Amino acid sequence: MIQSVSNDIVLLGNGPVSSDQRDWVDQCAFVVRFNIPRNGGAQNGGRCDALCVTNHGMPARRFAKYREFQNLPFIYPATEIWIPRPLWHSSISCYFNHPIPRIRWRQDHSSHLICRNGLQNHTQVYFSEQIWKQSFAQLNLDTNQWQISPSTGFLALTYCLQRFPLERFRIHLLGFSFRGSNAHPWSLERQAVERMADNGEVIWEMPLVGEKRFVPMLQNTG
User: Fold this and answer.
1) How many separate domains does the chain show?
2) pTM of this prediction?
3) 70 domain-assigned
């Protein structure tokens, strides 16, 4: 079990977690979950200070069309809703796909997602285009191609490294298995996180083998 301190920020992905973390997660300074959270309850707690949801493409359209965030147990009145991807090509409707693949893959459904799930009264955080470009640069991805883009989890990590300065906070990654849709460069993201862990920027628990990567505790400067 990771030692709990009051300056812990945890990004809790939807991959496996190697051990019971519920007490520690619920005592962290800030907890981020993603899309439809799979890690919660008996093993990983119920706290959710921010829900980061993709706003592009088919997943976002589905979240909006079928109102998949209504009555989601992880959304509380104070939960922030994070929109990580640029607001390009805003969709007119969430009922139909755009006929042009290049646009369809990056079509923004955030307005429908917010309204149809009743999230208008939540604090909404829209990531800047700088976060988008910085994530591409960290992964050496070409921004001119549209088939591959950073995952929602990696975009959230880039944002958290700016919002929560390392002089005051420790950023943990749990449930990040770097597997999923072929639209994301998982091997590059894993390599980037390994570099961050080696540099002391993040603490990553490797979920599939139960092995943990730790860095020395950073001094809490208040």
Assistant:
1) 1
2) 0.90
3) yes
